[in-house]
Amino acid sequence: MKKVALVVGNGDYEHTSKLKNPTNDSRDIKESLEDIGFKVYYGEDVSQREFKKVVRDFGRESDGADISLFYYAGHGLQYSGRNFLVPVNAEILSEDEIPDTTVSLDFIQNRMEDSKAQLNLFFLDSCRDNPFDKSIRSASGRSANIHRGLANPNVVFSNQSIITFATAPDEVALDNPDGRNGLFTKNLLKYITQAGVKIDDVLKATVKDVIDETEHQQIPWVHQKLYGDFYLNNQEKSKETQTEKDTQEDNLLVPNSYVDEPETTQEIFSFTAKGVTIESQGTQIPWVNNSIHT
């Protein structure tokens, strides 16, 4: 099975606020993915030129992969409805400089789409306020084109994909200044290497734990186009692990408010602050009424 990942963590910014968690986040995600058989391209505190180069290298390596995965921790912003990831050397003094000094999510998505991987995964732990808010001004003062958090990407992939934000579009993720990792990544790391667990179940458990830990102040957002079963770690569970699961039903990875989806269902669902919204093609989702509410 061919599994390829690009992991980028930017925290040591030159012209805006530095971030503590992304370096640890990216290193821990990289190590976890390598442990379960991913070939990982890695960037830490990268410039725009370095960022784009490693994306291109990753895109070429992902050609024909079973799973292609992109993870980013660092500053990000939305401008005119598009999402941009911020290299550590970016210096933005006006809003029209954003596309020229950052790396657009579109650029990365297009490279992944071109690779024709069976499944594309995006994890973005970058939903913060605009880091250049004080320096960017339009002619009328504060820009009406720049908004908090990240924008709904409104992406339609020809192949299967899952896009995950640390919090909902237009919302800001909470900081975790006293912890090693950001809140979303800390909870993702608990499940990402578990053997024999479907990727959508990993995400459901991660979302639930973030919601519980933050008391609904941060609700990760998941956009999914998936009509097959995929496993980040496709190794079989050991008999000991399976026995523990059978005898500890209260500690199931997937919360009991969810039930398994039909095997032949193609679906798109989003965890948002208003709950779980689901669009289904051809088959009703049995847990459509079990949405999470604030």
Structure explained in plain terms:
This protein has 294 residues and is α/β, with parallel strands linked by helices. The chain contains seven helices and twelve strands. A six-stranded mixed sheet has the order 2-1-3-7-9-10, sandwiched between helices. It has a four-stranded antiparallel sheet with strand order 6-5-4-8. Helix 2 (48-61) runs parallel beside helix 4 (105-114) and helix 5 packs across helix 6. Residues 245-294 have low confidence and may be disordered.
Question: Which regions contain 5 or more consecutive residues with pLDDT less than 50?
Answer: 245-294
Derived from helix and strand composition plus strand pairing, the structural class reads: alpha/beta
Task: Give the strand order of the largest sheet, numbering strands 1, 2, ... along the chain.
Answer: 2-1-3-7-9-10
Characterize the overall form.
globular
Brief account:
With 294 residues, this protein is an alpha/beta fold. Helices cover 26% and strands 22% of the residues. It contains seven helices and twelve strands.
Give the secondary structure arrangement, pairings included:
Blueprint: E1 3-9, H1 21-35, E2 39-44, H2 48-61, E3 67-73, E4 76-79, E5 82-85, H3 98-101, E6 103-104, H4 105-114, E7 119-125, E8 146-147, E9 160-165, H5 183-191, H6 199-214, E10 221-225, H7 239-247, E11 266-272, E12 275-281
Parallel strand pairs: 1-2, 1-3, 3-7, 7-9
Antiparallel strand pairs: 4-5, 4-8, 5-6, 9-10, 11-12
